[in-house]
Amino acid sequence: VAEATRRMKLKHVVITAVARDDIADGGAEHFRQTIEEVRRLNPKTVIEVLVPDFQDSDQSIEMVLAANPHIFNHNLETVRRLTPEVRHRATYDRSLSVLKKVKRVAASRQSAANKNSGGLPTAATIFTKSGMMLGLGEREDEVLAAMQDLRAAGCDILTLGQYLQPTLKH
What we know:
By secondary structure, the protein is α/β, with parallel strands linked by helices. Helix content is 41%, strand content 15%.
C-alpha cells in the first residue's frame, strides 16, 4: 500500500479493510502498521483510515490512533431505525461510541502534548469522519437526527452517498 501510494504520487489515501471480527484486535495492528509504512514512504500524504467498529474496543481504537492518521473514519451507514436491517453485526450506538472515543483520546493526547510543550502549538488534531448511505427508506427527520447524533459525537466530516438506484419503495 505504501509503495503504491508512492508510485502513484497520491496526496490523500484511504486505508480500509473488511471487518476482521475473527481476530482479537479486529485488525487494528495491521491498520497501525500500514499507516506507519505509508507515512514512512510518503511523509506529505494525508492518511485517512476507514475502520470497522472494533467491537468498541478501547485498545484497538487506541492502537490505530497511535499511528496518528490525519482522519479517522468510521461509517454510521444509515439511520437508527434501519441499522438492524442494513448492518447485521454493527449497532448504531456502538458506531457513535467509536467516534466519541476517538475524540476523547485525541483531546487527551492534545492536552498532554500542550502541557509538555509549555502551551505552544503541537501536532494537528485528528479529524473524525463518517458516512451514510441514502435511499434505503430513511425519512428526512431520521437523516437529520443521525446528523445531529454524529455532531454530538464530535464528527467533523460527513459524507452522504447513494449506493443503490432508488426504487418506487425507496
